[in-house]
Amino acid sequence: MKIKQHGLVYLGIIALFIVFALLLIALVGREILGFDLGGEETGLQLMDRDRWEELDRGTQGETDAPADCLFIYDNDADGEVYKGIMEPMLDQMRVAYRDVRSDAFVEADLEGCRTAVICTTDLSRFGEGILHILDWIQDGGRLFFAEVSDSGSFMSMISRNIGIVSMSQEPVQVSGFTFTKPFMIGSDREYRFSDPYDSSYELILSDDCEVYLESADERKIPLVWRKALGEGTVVVSNLGYMEKNLWGVYAACYSLLEEAFAWPVINGSAFFLDDFPGPVSNAVDQRIMEEYGLDVKKFFSQVWWRDMQALAKEYDLKYTAALIEDYTEDVTAPFDSNGLDTTAFRNYGMGVLSLGGEIGYHGYNHMPLALEDFDFQHLEGDFVPWSGMGDMEAGLKELHSFCAGLYPNVLIQTYVPPAGILSPEGRRMIAEKFPGIRIIAGTYVPDGISFVQDFDVSPDGIVNVPRVVSGYEMEDFGYLSAFSELNFHYVQSHYQHPFDVLAGGQGQRRSWSDMKEQFGGYLDWIYDSAPGLRSMTATELAAAVQRYDALTVEQTCEADRLVLELGNFADEAWLLVRLNGREPGAVEGGSLEAVLEGLYLLEAQSGRVEIELQ
Length: 614
Known about the structure:
The chain has 14 helices and 30 strands. The protein is of the alpha/beta class and 614 residues long. It has 3 domains: 69-258, Class I glutamine amidotransferase (GATase) domain (Rossmann fold); 268-545, Alpha-Beta Barrel (TIM Barrel); 551-613.
């Protein structure tokens, strides 16, 4: 009997010891290493491929049937550029449109259209057809003049009708713009072009023009304005830039045409950490040593990562950490982990997960998935092409095995191409050999050889979640691109390289403390400008992109209400709603949040939403 009692006592002591040890591990992990054990899967979930394929996405955008909008462009090289910018914008705003060349336009093309968009540099191609467009506006049509044409005789013929009293003979350089009316998200600051050129005409407008944008200099050249013409409306852009990172500006211009207009958005914010976790050496960086007295490895663990954790908690950020296994230039199988110390990999990764973030794939090494015939252009000496398709596959298999050993039972679905580069062969290999990869995060704005994407779903079911801006020190181009995407997709997508803080990195002009302050300023601006913007991992953002990309929108603006019929409504849908001269009343089927005067974020809660207009 006593022996049994002693055994029970010993078992009790052992059990208490085990519980104490587990609590201690959890405490150490949480307080020192930055992670918690366990946790449930939360957040928006990806639709599986079968469910996605069952959706009837219908025909949005260009159509041969009667359409709401007529898009008119020139049949030349400039016209193709304009078409490549404006038509995808209309597609993504769910505007049903037909297109026609300016030299083929006839009056009958406008039948049934509420709106029209003109992109032309030579109005003479219309001939007398331009007068038919003016008559159509006077009768209630609504025209977005996306490009001010040259000052020839045809421009003189219509200029007063679109508000222009006088204009310069040639365009002049405008380096940036500012707002006279806060009609866009983030309109409390100035935006500058990184490579300005002669793009805009100096103008004097009639007093009945409502100016929204003007040049950010003493000339204050009108850049966007609206004018009533008879029963209709004209909105004119004098920016002269047709680039993808201005989609948000042109979408906002289009939204000024009608009393009420809605377009679908994503509503999500994601932050990618490229090359993290990754191998970190004990090397000495002169600037880090001078500022902190630490080698590189200790700086990242004791300073940088703690600061990144603090930022995540302060701003509710969810990091997607794109892991790189090694920096070897080996591109010929077989591959292995080369005896790497995995302690830092595991601790950093678990720290990311504990903050609500996720792990993604970056690469076995930092060599983009491209073969010997790939044109690396000016980066030819920076990368080694892979020896063959089998070697690329073997490299990604090694990375998958490495991650599975580090983070058992952690689902990894995101691939971030090294240096933003991914060849067609590499893309095909991922789709065919790695069905578990559901998301690819390339780049959004074209910049040479990068893998460029829109926010959408590819035919093979892979979700495209591009990174829009990068770095700790946001410069003119970054702020302009981020501003545009808040206004177009209500989305923020940023990536950073931890090594940018080192003397040889992209941020080598400033100390980490300065860069952290700059980055914090960007975060302040993002979340102050966009109320209700949701923090997300790459997977959660991809799930939101699926719902956005599948959504069809039919809208009817009646005298007293805006009615939205939303096809493929699943568990959520988000839209931006512009009201021009009207106020919202009761909402059925959703809820509105004011973003700024005249612009609202709509959370749809059913496939039909009615917004009372007052």
